[in-house]
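Re: weekly structure request thread

Next one in the queue (304 aa):
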Amino acid sequence: MPVLASDLIESTRRHLFTGQPEKLNKLDGAINSSVTSFTLKYDTGGVQAGTILSIDLEEIYVFSVNATAKMVQDCSRGYNGTTAASHVDTSLVTAQPKFSQFRILQALNDDLNDLSSPSNGMFQIKTVQLTFSPVRFGYDMTSVTDIISIAEVRYRMPGPTRTWPRINSYTLARNMPSSGTFGDFPSGTALILYETAYPGYPIQVRYRAPYVDMTNLTDNVTTITGLQSTALDIPPLGAAIRLVLGREIHRNFDEAQGEPRRAEEVPPQASAGSMRGLAALRQQRINAEAARLVRAYNYEMVSG
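Done, posted below.
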């Protein structure tokens, strides 16, 4: 079965919560993106004025509640930078979530972006095909805008042998002229070849690219992001670390003094310290997956 963005969110939550329940409810009837009142299936319980609700990827600020009717009477949709959206009947409602699904998804995307940094050395492989011309050295990388570096370049030989020899001498040139009289490279990126190939035949360029953000709970993670299936456990580790560090900042606000026992039972930096094991595991997994990628795409290149 495909792994969805919602699955990574749940994996992150398992790192963050060890059996600690949240206040949950369900919608009693579907709602669209504009209504400011709706009914809950069960007693409002922890839902009152000032409560933040999380439904799918939306956060909602509650202004008033009718507890007898189990109704949120007035609210602000799309709170905290989220987007107001439609939600189906019986959608799960979390009251005052420590980490909403929206925030967890943001943290997962932040970690995906970090994995593609030079210090972590992870990437996805994409392919673009060009056509060789004997009068040309420079080739526009068509609509490619996400290239990190070239992995390999091969060209098709004529005949029935289906041979694709490598081109070893080339340069990847960035920020090339893309418009005007000499705007030869609309994408702004050019592949300069210093070896010949066969006129009219394809050149296949495989390149390293960063991972792509998830936007919906139903996104297929490997299809949308390009993350390898063996590395699906890494983003939840990174997301959990990011989210807990944010909680430590919140803890240090003066307003946090309303929790008198917390300073004794959970000393300063305890939350951040609890993530050290996850941070070490995350780094081990990044090293392992980066090594796996090097082994799979370790092409020797003269330049590029």
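The radius of gyration is 26 Å. The first strand starts at residue 23 and ends at 26.
Next request, please.
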